[in-house]
Amino acid sequence: MELYGVVIKLVGPVMPIGETREDEKRLENLKVLCDLIDKLLTDIDDVAQYSSREEYSMKTAGIYASKFIDRIGIV
Question: pLDDT band at 10, cuts 50/70/90?
Answer without folding.
Answer: very high
